[in-house]
Design a protein that fits this description.
single chain; alpha+beta; OB fold (Dihydrolipoamide Acetyltransferase, E2P); 2 domains; two-stranded antiparallel sheet; about 30% strand
């Protein structure tokens, strides 16, 4: 079972782990690792009845691989498995184009459903306005050096 260390006292070697919404006390004697327990560390817990018999730290590389596999599974589940075509457009039929799934196209409807028309419109407006800043320049009160330099004879 996986858990997370929420409290550890290095002075007496005791701590608390939370797993499945329950808190379990532990002592340093059950720790299996080269380094000391750390708060917020993900651990693998082995129980002997209701007590903890062994605790070992789960490596960051293992957690990263598991997270990548989870995200990859979510991404693959959103892509149709058929090798045919995926219709793009809404049910009204404003856009009725079939794009081969093999080309990696993402249906436009899924993007609109995910972010919303208002958010996508705001993003497009933001992109256009950032490009406009390079074309438009304003100076308030003339050049900055004019107030510091005096050309009047003394």
């Amino acid at each position: 079972m996986r858990g997370e260390i929420i409290q550890y006292n290095g002075a007496d070697g005791s701590g608390t782990i939370v797993a499945d919404g329950k808190q379990y006390p532990f002592v340093l004697a059950v720790w299996r690792g080269n380094s000391a327990p750390m708060v917020n560390k993900t651990v693998e817990i082995v129980f002997d009845g209701d007590t903890i018999s062994a605790i070992s730290a789960v490596g960051d590389d293992v957690l990263l691989k598991e997270k990548a596999a989870e995200l990859g599974g979510k991404f693959n589940a959103s892509i149709p498995a058929s090798g045919g075509t995926t219709p793009i457009g809404d049910a009204v039929g404003s856009v009725a184009v079939n794009v081969p799934v093999s080309c990696g196209a993402i249906p436009v409807n899924s993007i609109i459903e995910r972010y919303g028309k208002l958010m996508l419109g705001a993003y497009v407006l933001f992109l256009i306005s950032t490009l406009m800043f390079n074309a438009v320049s304003m100076s308030l009160g003339g050049p900055a050096w004019a107030s510091r330099c005096s050309t009047a004879p003394a």
